[in-house]
Amino acid sequence: MAQRDYYEILGVAREADQDTIKKAYRKLAMQLHPDKNPGNKEAEDKFKEAAGAYEVLSDPDKRAKYDRFGHDAFTGRGGGGGGAGFTDVEDIFSHFGDIFGDFFGGGMGGQQRQRRDKNAPRRGADLRYVTEVTLKDVITGLEKEIEFDTDKNCDDCKGTGAEKGSQVTTCTMCGGSGQVVRSQGFFAMASTCPQCQGQGTTIKNPCKSCKGKGRVAEHRKIRLNIPAGVDTGTRLRVATEGEGGYMGGPAGDLYVEIRVKPHNHFERRGDDLVAELSVPYVQMLLGAEIDVPTVTGKTTVEVPKGSHPGDTVKVPGEGLPSLRGNRRGDIYFHINVQLPDKINKDEEKLLREIAKARGLKVSPESGGLFGRKK
To answer: 351: helix, coil or strand?
Structure first.
């Protein structure tokens, strides 16, 4: 049976950001959790399927491969309801324990699991940025400045959210879990703690700079080197330029996705370029050297004698460079015949002589200049 699209499984658009994907999975996992659906094999299979989709889409590298190659990027993984290799529910719990801890207060099927300390150092999220380049940029490469907004730890309170001299204390209502848990038979239901709003801590004197959040907005500018040979969908990783870390943790990475703008004349096919070339009928019959455009300038191409419409002429080495080597592709021009809108009397006379020599019947001679009727 064919595997379902991962984005379809989670109910998100292909351009969804990481936060949207995580929220969609959390919601789906809550609905399908085995503790809420005891003995329901269909729900369990969908639970595994959702975990498999999230395991791929939550990882920028795996997501990029999936966007490009689909399920073929992970051949041998995923079959059935197991998604990206999850055949055991316990495997899912251990892999995404932080997500399930948020919902079930650390309790899953009666098994207590350690909750992640919100005040421990954590890595910042990876960020995605899309930028456009021209076909000429693909040939030459370029350095480009990009700007984006993100968050970082507040420098004044070092991410604690507390004013200098004030302390962060454990919430007395939830005991630091950030959630109030109510047991209902076999499983536990958790809700956000109303006293600390899910933070697990309380602050008597909030930091004035960040208003107790521990985080501040940051507008960032960086210089990005885009190598020659990139294509639409190419992703460049810029280490530690993502969201700032939490409580002294490392920053995430920035992933820059390339979009190549369409060209007015050339169509890209891998490292080769294809274009149409209109050639006057006389030069097609007799052969000629013709000046033709390239992405970066002009060159000359040889049109063989007796060429026909649809024939192709190649300009070697004037295509696009390979991202993985020094070779450049070629340009292929598809020939179209170019007929004149008008011919003068001398040209008409010569054409009639050619027609006579070839035994062809043509229309009677016209007076004055000969032109095609519009």
So the answer is: helix
| Torsion region of 223: left, alpha or beta (phi above 0 gives left; psi -120 to 50 gives alpha) | beta
According to CATH, the topology of domain 1-115 is: Helix Hairpins (1.10.287)
- Whether residue 80 has pLDDT greater than 60: no
Domain ranges in the chain with CATH number 2.60.260.20:
117-157+211-261, 267-339
Residues 19-59 have pLDDT tens digits of 899 999 988 888 888 777 777 888 888 888 888 889 899 88
The pTM of the full predicted model, rounded to 2 decimals, is 0.59
Q: Was domain 267-339 assigned CATH 2.60.260.20?
A: yes
Residue 243's contacts (CB-CB under 8 Å, 6 or more residues apart) are 124, 125, 126, 127, 150, 151, 152, 251, 252
Q: In sequence order, what are the beta bridge partners of 335? A: 277
> pLDDT tens-digit profile of 226-270?
999 999 999 999 999 999 998 888 999 999 999 999 999 999 999
Quote the pLDDT of residue 231. 96
Angle between helices 60-69 and 41-57 (to 10 degrees): 100
Average pLDDT of the residues of the chain? 84
The answer to whether residue 3 scores a pLDDT higher than 90 is no
What is the Cα–Cα distance from 148 to 150, expressed in whole angstroms? Answer: 7
Contacts of 249 (CB under 8 A, 6+ apart): 121, 122, 123, 124
CA distance 353 to 365: 12
Tokens (6 digits) for 205:
């004197």
In the numeric block, the tokens 């309801």 are attached to 81
Predicted confidence at residue 217, as pLDDT, reads 94
Q: What is the CA radius of gyration of the chain?
A: 33
Domain with CATH 1.10.287.110 in the chain: 1-115
Instruction: Name the nearest CA neighbour of 58 among 3, 96, 103.
Output: 96
CATH fold for the domain made of 117-157+211-261: HSP40/DNAj peptide-binding domain (2.60.260)
Total Cβ atoms within 10 A of residue 154: 21
